[in-house]
Specification:
- With 260 residues, the protein is an alpha/beta fold.
- The chain has helices at 30-45, 68-71, 76-94, 111-118, 145-153, 155-164, 170-175, 188-200, 204-217, 222-236, 240-250; strands spanning 6-11, 14-19, 51-56, 61-63, 100-104, 107-109, 121-125, 129-131, 168-169, 181-183.
- Strands 1-2-3-5-7-10 form a six-stranded mixed beta sheet, with helices on both faces. A four-stranded mixed beta sheet has the order 4-6-8-9.
- The chain binds coenzyme A (COA).
- Residues 24-25, 27, 64-69, 107, 109-111, 133-134, 137 line the site of coenzyme A (COA).
């Protein structure tokens, strides 16, 4: 499968996905969104892909938002259709069953911030900048920002970002819990891979079910979420991975997980 707007490379179990429109600060036009959807499906389907690092091409931007040239042409019905399509693409990535790390190498604005929010873990370079500037353009977030941002950083902080449209730097993003870690730009790729490799060294089945319990559980009542968690706990008790993990601990040796 070849892409026009993405770089997609699988090395040793990790899919490195790079949004590749550096001359437009990796803005999400319709083609990028369609290709991101195809990439999410491939990630979900290919057993050899165990985790994902998503980043933007060039030194300046992760993604500077939805492509404003595309938005400028839309009317109410295609605007709604674009938002629903984009939301579905980000949801496919979020629910692909594999851990997705956003390596945020510069501007993450509008749809770029929303894309980062749909990833499971966010590592930012020191020069990264975050914002939901849509209101300054006469629009509002359309790719999940009004829903995921308050869930991540709380309603008050989310509303401040969404209503003012102002940008914050990486240190402030870390302070409010928008990103998990801030690292020097030169270390971003290595730190992102190190973190993901740490996850991939654990049981893939346990990771998958923990991801699912958190992602799905957030939309459930507490009792429903707790039942989902207990079901997963029981399901994992039927796996070789659980037997290996617990036995390895008791035998004081490193576990070797097979994903079975
Ligand atoms: N959509 C389409 N094109 C975009 C874009 C976007 N969201 N963001 C940047 N670009 C394009 C610029 O138009 C410019 O293209 P050109 O060279 O053909 O004129 C190129 O990317 C470089 O951007 P530029 O604005 O020259 O860089 P800068 O360093 O001066 O400013 C930003 C960087 C991020 C502050 C500025 O590009 C910006 O405000 N972008 C829009 C951010 C936004 O509102 N996103 C939400 C959209 S819903």
């Amino acid at each position: 499968m070849s892409y026009q707007t993405l770089l997609f490379d699988v090395t040793d179990g990790i899919a490195h996905v790079t949004i590749n429109r550096p001359d437009k600060l990796n803005a999400l036009n319709d083609q990028v969104m369609a290709e991101l959807g195809q990439a999410a499906d491939r990630i979900a389907a290919e057993a050899s892909i165990r985790g994902v690092i998503l980043t933007g091409a060039g030194p300046k931007a992760f993604v500077a938002g939805a492509d404003i040239a595309d938005l400028a042409k839309q009317g109410p019905f295609d605007g709604k259709a674009r938002a629903l399509r984009g939301q579905a693409v980000l949801r496919r990535l979020e629910t692909c069953g594999k851990p997705v790390v956003a390596a945020i190498n510069g501007f993450a604005l509008g749809g770029g911030c929303e894309l980062a929010l749909a990833c499971h873990i966010r590592i930012a370079s020191e020069n990264a900048k975050f914002g939901q500037p849509e209101v300054k353009l006469g629009i509002a977030p359309g790719y999940g920002g009004t829903q995921r941002l308050p869930r991540l950083v709380g309603k008050g902080r989310a509303l401040q970002l969404i209503l003012t449209g102002e940008m914050i730097d990486a240190a402030e993003a870390y302070r409010i819990g928008l990103v998990n870690k801030v690292v020097p730009a030169a270390d971003l790729a290595a730190e992102s891979e190190k973190l993901l490799r740490g996850i991939l060294a654990t049981s893939p089945l346990a990771v998958r079910l923990a991801l699912e319990a958190v992602e799905r559980g957030l939309d459930m009542s507490l009792d429903e979420g707790l039942l989902l968690e207990a079901n997963h706990f029981g399901l994992l008790a039927a796996t070789a991975d659980m037997k290996e993990g617990l036995t390895a601990f008791l035998e004081k040796r490193a576990a070797k997980f097979t994903g079975c």
